[in-house]
């Protein structure tokens, strides 16, 4: 069900919906009629016990308390998209972990995780949170400007079986944090660190901790050089995709080295200056 209207949400309070498995509330209004929308969403979810996929992206009025309330109805939820719900903090994430045991895919891009002061009374204290959620395989926290080291380290301990992790645009990434995260999450296969300050030391840690890595996105990581890239290509033997676009310190000739040394690679987004000659194309095709 996509983008139910305000009138539709009101009607849902009077009905019993039991078969809905997917809800997409797209581009929800801002702050007008907030109470009606919240009550309608809660009523819809309470009468839909089999919902598996919920998209509330850009629902700007949602706060931590709202998520804490409606998550109680989502025992079968598998994926949720809360991208652009800028009032949400880590308290909302904790509510989902506690109340949604089947959850495996969480998107909370462009939220205020790390800034608990605006959350709207969510609930769980991050310092005492001790639940482990082994079913969660994918976590997107891109563009979360308040994200802190302690948040990421805690989330890694909560989600030890993560396979997909998106931390792009996180300004404070460090090799120490990367190291602690990967000690908890050794099964990561898709890692997005684009537009971060990740450097060669962090790439060395990644290369030794994530031997099963399939995809590494490093777009505009200006502290990375070809030395760090070589560590990844050498040690991540299953790597199929790497993005080095706008990595200004990576020399273009590293692409040829990657092609020759890592046959598993299927997609390389090269740094500026790389020229794909006919001879290189022939070598690539022979290797792959």
UniProtKB/TrEMBL annotation:
<dbReference type="InterPro" id="IPR032675">
    <property type="entry name" value="LRR_dom_sf"/>
</dbReference>
<feature type="domain" description="F-box/LRR-repeat protein 15-like leucin rich repeat">
    <location>
        <begin position="130"/>
        <end position="238"/>
    </location>
</feature>
<dbReference type="InterPro" id="IPR006553">
    <property type="entry name" value="Leu-rich_rpt_Cys-con_subtyp"/>
</dbReference>
<dbReference type="GO" id="GO:0005737">
    <property type="term" value="C:cytoplasm"/>
</dbReference>
<dbReference type="Pfam" id="PF25372">
    <property type="entry name" value="DUF7885"/>
</dbReference>
<protein>
    <submittedName>
        <fullName>F-box/LRR protein</fullName>
    </submittedName>
</protein>
<dbReference type="InterPro" id="IPR057207">
    <property type="entry name" value="FBXL15_LRR"/>
</dbReference>
């Amino acid at each position: 069900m996509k983008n139910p209207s305000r009138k539709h949400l009101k009607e849902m309070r009077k009905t019993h919906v039991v078969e809905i498995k997917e809800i997409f509330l797209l581009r929800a209004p801002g702050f007008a009629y907030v109470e009606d929308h919240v009550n309608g969403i809660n009523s819809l979810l309470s009468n839909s016990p089999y919902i598996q996929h919920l998209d509330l992206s850009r629902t700007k009025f949602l706060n931590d308390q709202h998520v804490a309330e409606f998550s109680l109805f989502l025992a079968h939820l598998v994926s949720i998209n809360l991208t652009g719900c800028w009032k949400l903090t880590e308290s909302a994430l904790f509510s989902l972990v506690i109340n949604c045991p089947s959850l495996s895919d969480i998107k909370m891009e462009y939220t205020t995780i790390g800034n608990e002061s605006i959350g709207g009374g969510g609930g769980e204290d991050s310092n005492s949170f001790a639940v482990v959620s082994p079913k969660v395989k994918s976590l997107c926290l891109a563009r979360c400007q308040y994200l802190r080291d302690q948040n990421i380290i805690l989330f890694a301990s909560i989600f030890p079986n993560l396979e997909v992790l998106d931390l792009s645009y996180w300004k404070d990434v460090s090799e120490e944090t990367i190291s602690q995260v990967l000690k908890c999450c050794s099964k990561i296969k898709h890692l997005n660190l684009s537009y971060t300050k990740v450097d060669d030391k962090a790439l060395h840690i990644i290369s030794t901790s994530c031997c099963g890595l399939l995809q590494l996105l490093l777009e505009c990581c200006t502290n990375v050089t070809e030395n760090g890239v070589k560590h990844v290509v050498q040690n991540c033997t299953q790597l199929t995709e790497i993005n080095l676009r706008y990595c200004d310190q990576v020399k273009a000739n590293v692409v040829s080295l990657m092609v020759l040394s890592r046959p598993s690679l299927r997609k390389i987004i090269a740094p500026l200056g790389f020229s794909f000659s006919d001879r290189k194309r022939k070598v690539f095709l022979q290797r792959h």
